[in-house]
Amino acid sequence: MSERTSALLLLLIVACCSHVAAADRPNILWITSEDNGPHLGCYGDEYATTPNLDALAERSCRYLHCWSNAPVCAPARTAIITGMYSTSLGAEHMRSMVRMPEGFLLYPQYLREAGYYCTNNSKEDYNVVKPGQVWDESSKNAHWKNRAEGQPFFAIFNHTISHESQIRNEIDEKDRIHDPAKVRVPAYHPDTPEVRKDWAQYYDRLTMMDAQVGETLRELEEAGLAEETIVFYYGDHGSGMPRNKRWPYNSGLHVPLLVHIPDKWRDLATDDFETGGASDRLVSFVDLAPTVLSLCGIEPPDHMQGHAFLGEHAVQPQPYIHGFRGRMDERYDMVRSVTDGRYVYIRNYMPHLEYGQYVSYMFQTPTTRVWKELFDDGELNEAQSQFWQRKPPEELYDLESDPDEVVNLADSPEHSEVKERLIEALIEHLVRIRDLGFFSEYHLHAYSGGDREPPLTRYEAVREYDLYNPRTFHFVAVYSTDPDSPQDRIKAYLNECARFGPYEDLAMYWAVTGILGQGGHHFTENHRALHNIIKDSIADEACNPAFASTRIVAAEALATHGDDEDLEAALPVLMEYANVQEHGLYAAMYALNALDRLNEKAAPLADEMSALPRESDAVPRRMGDYIERLIEKILADVD
After folding, report:
1. How does residue 8 score in pLDDT terms, banded at 50, 70 and 90?
2. Does 73 participate in catalysis according to the annotation?
3. Cα–Cα–Cα angle for 273, 276, 278, nearest 5°?
4. Which of 68, 294, 558, 638 has minimal Cβ neighbours within 10 Å of its Cβ?
5. For 138-173, what is each residue's pLDDT tens digit?
6. Which pLDDT tens digit goes with each residue over 321-332?
7. CA torsion sign, 504 to 505 to 510 to 512?
8. Residue 17 reports pLDDT greater than 50
9. Is the Cα dihedral 90, 76, 112, 262 positive or negative?
10. In degrees, to the nearest 5, what angle opens at C-alpha 353 toward C-alphas 348 and 357?
11. Stretch 583-597: mean pLDDT
């Protein structure tokens, strides 16, 4: 055999082997839609009109308990793309940006290494810096058809027509097919024409989205690829209606998930997978990356925190799924939630904040505005009023008897065992993933990364030095913010912060946050020690810069609960940090939020606030108008 013939034969063998390898791996198609819960016919919603998704469900498995982990897009997508909880990376805040630890890749990169052609059409919106090229193509033109012949593909098509912004936009009369008079208004919303119109238009948008899904599926069918392709459909978090999107209730986290596995790949399914039926398995977005890797024959890397629920590397079902809430646009908060599928437990670590903080974007929805107006006029019942009031430290809901989550069972003796079980599940989760939510966003970004090259991320640092225990700070926050906690306990936290080592700033931050939330009784003559410690904490201008968020919350506590002298001492501190050019975005957002909550006490600062810079070159583009929104809101209120 000649050398040339041998070379040609070798090329033929390689080509054949490559074809076999491609044929032995499934294509994966993900179809996603924005801002919609399981309000589909196939999930039992008789008001919905979703024929294409209903047809897909007939040849798929419906997952009945799928959570998005975060009730808003960027941190939810971060959980998907990383296979990790955004809270373990410090990426829980809306449109923040953090580095991944060295060597960690995003799931499409593992697929591409294995020979897959990976496309994203087209939204990314991650909270992590991309570690190199992630997609073969990510744009409105990205498509599986651009791959090499015989190459397996992973493709995402994201439909935006159901997004929150589309609820309040005008639509053609031909698309108005849902009668507002027949819509079910949840118990937490007032029954008004505006609310009914918004809910009906939400369902109209779902019908329009359903038609787009049908087109995507037909294209796959017409290309002759349907029997080679595993199809996922899911929504990216709860509906865009207020008190769904942005809140880690079941209503904000529960999403539809349909998975179709063709007969050819049926051996990749698990025992709970029932074609044309439903699965009770608890799954969430953090599980999607390890699952798609598992379906493609790739063992998920150890750093991924999700659990594969399909494929050769599928694991046993998990007993709980977890949700979280951090900063939502320009407003700060910290909430964690957990469910076993029936009960939802919620821990509010900042219960002094009302649910319905003023998020400018949310108030563009007519439902939000009329809802708030009715509350201000005293025309709402108890369930409808909750959203505009301070949060309780704990919430517990039974989804079987109370699907709208308005009857809080946290203090119910009959449910104490359920609550304690879910609390322990929550704490165990905080510890397992090293939840970084107890760091203020300022703390997270003030960290220098040490002397390493590249610098350590917060994720790496809390593991490298093994000094950060979320269980400890959970209890510091819980005891500090609980109105029934002994005041001596809070005083001890303030006096003994040094025992927390390099995290003494966190202990003081949470202790002072608790005092801010508990009320002015801490500044009576019987408790001047607490008052003096707080006053000292804002006076130390030479303190560690990482204490900025502690000084801000201490200044707010003094201004809120102190006397005129305390207010005079506190306001200059808040105005100092409100300057985004001098102290950066995160300090400025914390300070401006504090000033906004002071209401008329901040009125004398109107001229100074008008002169504050609204932008800085150091502010990420995605967060460019947050300072503007806060300043304009404060000025409108004090005018």
Report:
1. very low
2. yes
3. 50
4. 638
5. 999 999 999 999 999 999 999 999 999 999 999 999
6. 999 999 999 999
7. positive
8. no
9. positive
10. 115
11. 97
CA-wise closest residue to 290 among 110, 70, 72, 76: 110
d(CA 346, CA 395): 5
> How many Å separate Cα 98 from the centre of its chain?
15
How is 561-577 classified by DSSP, letter by letter? HS-HHHHHHHHHHHHHH
| pLDDT higher than 70, residue 367 | yes
Q: Is 235 helix (H, G, I), strand (E, B) or coil?
A: strand
Both tokens assigned to 373: 């107006």
Task: Check 73, 118, 296, 497 and give the catalytic one.
Answer: 73
Neighbouring-strand partners of residue 325: 335
Nearest CA to 217 out of 66, 61, 51 is that of 51
Picking from 155, 121, 37, 134, the residue whose alpha carbon sits closest to that of residue 78 is 134
Supply 460's token pair. Answer: 């790496």
Q: What are phi and psi of 403, to 5 degrees?
A: -65, -20
Categorise residue 150: left if φ over 0, alpha if ψ from -120 to 50, beta otherwise.
Answer: left
**Residue whose tokens read 């198609």:** 29
CA distance 94 to 246: 10
DSSP H helices, 152-192, are 164-167
Cβ count within 10 A of residue 620 = 11
Tokens of 249: 């209730």
| Lowest-pLDDT choice from 54-68, 472-486, 533-547 | 533-547
- Distance from C-alpha of 477 to C-alpha of 264, rounded to nearest angstrom: 52
Higher pLDDT pick, 539 / 378 = 378
Secondary structure element (H or E) that encloses residue 120, with its range: strand 117-121
Report the DSSP beta bridge partners of residue 279.
63
- The three-state secondary structure class of 601 is helix
- Tell me the pLDDT band of 19, cut-offs 50, 70 and 90: very low
- How long, in residues, is the chain? 639
Q: How many helices (H) and strands (E) does the chain have?
A: 23, 12
- Look at the alpha carbons of 583, 584, 585, 586 in this order and tell me if their dihedral is positive or negative: negative
Contact between 569 and 558 (Cβ < 8 Å): yes
Percent of the chain with pLDDT over 90: 79
Sign of CA dihedral 488, 491, 493, 496: negative
Alpha helix ranges (H) inside 45-132 = 51-58, 73-82, 86-89, 107-113
Report the candidate in 405, 251, 441 with the shortest Cα–Cα distance to residue 331.
441
3-state secondary structure 458-469: HHHHHHHCCCCC
Which residue, among 252, 261, 50, 18, has the nearest Cα to 149 in the 3D structure?
A: 18
Crossing angle of the two packed helices 504-518 and 487-495, in degrees rounded to 10: 150
Centre a 10 Å sphere on the Cβ of residue 529 and count the other Cβ atoms it contains. Answer: 14
Q: What is the pLDDT of residues 509-522, one digit of tens each?
A: 998 888 888 765 55
Helix (H) or strand (E) holding 128: none
